[in-house]
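Take a record.
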Amino acid sequence: MNLAFEPAPTVVVPVAGTDLGFPVRRIYCVGRNYAAHAREMGFDPDREPPFFFCKPADAIVYVAPGTTGAFPYPSETTDCHYEMELVAAIGRGGRDIAVDAALEHVYGYALGLDMTRRDLQVKMRGMGRPWDIGKAFDHSAPIGPIHRAEQVGHLDRGAIRLAVNGEAKQQADLSQLIWSVAETVSYLSTFFELVPGDLIYTGTPEGVGAVVRGDRIRGGIDGLGEFDVDVV
């Protein structure tokens, strides 16, 4: 069949230390997966089942090591927030994956930012409407290179941090995730068939806040290094 127009190119995130690219299929994001962040957002942090929202693959902004990424400040907001997150990359698909087998499906890990138009998210939530315009907008998913699990191990502890213009804003430990990576992969696979190329943004710690044009965000996770993103 002939195509009506040329399809958009596949979004690819480089794999650290190799000449490989990780083709991105879907981006799943976990909401309120650190208790302190749930509290700061006004919610009970009791361990309820995780919930998910999605971003389009082309929301990716790749930040190469040794460079500074650029996040264009989005339209229709005056309250755009950073959320520093561990990203798990799926390399083996499946449905109804058991928790004790879930990490076998994880190809690797990356630094990620879930950028959020907070004012629009809160407005839509209050109206009982989907969050898409608050979460799934263009350039809303900055990411660093994917580090293979065989090289860095499966990250279940270690500092996760973020600073804005040199001032510390987020500081927590991956061990504080309410739902671990394995539990998240297992639970998500009961709702969707996971496929190689899927990314899971696993949630953010407390300390989220707004940025403005001209700010520099520096995020890091032990074992994955750091990256810088300018708000432009």
About this structure: The mean pLDDT is 95. The longest helix spans residues 118-126. The two ends are 41 Å apart (CA to CA). Residues 35 and 45 are 5 Å apart (CA to CA).
